[in-house]
Amino acid sequence: MIKNSILLSELTPEQLKELVGSSVKSQLNDFKKSLGNLHSNDELFSREEACKFLKIDLSTLWHWTQKGKVTAYAISSRRYYKRCELLEALKPLKK
């Protein structure tokens, strides 16, 4: 007797094709969702977008960047902030 074998009885080739196709499609959708979650955390914000996201003033963002609380990334003369790093910079208050 062979273990790890699959017996398909009363299954037409079209039904098998549909079964395999739906399984592969489901796995691809799950993979696509997981990739989407990874990329959404790497979203880059401009200075204005970062301030709006954190609900702070531009001068506060500048001070936080100078103190190393948040990291700025540059492309030419423009500054960008990673969304995931802005979220990591937030600290819970101790009660």
Automatic annotation (TrEMBL):
Domain of life: Bacteria
InterPro entries noted in UniProt: DNA-bd_dom_put_sf
Official protein name in the record: Helix-turn-helix domain-containing protein
Organism, as annotated: Thalassobellus suaedae
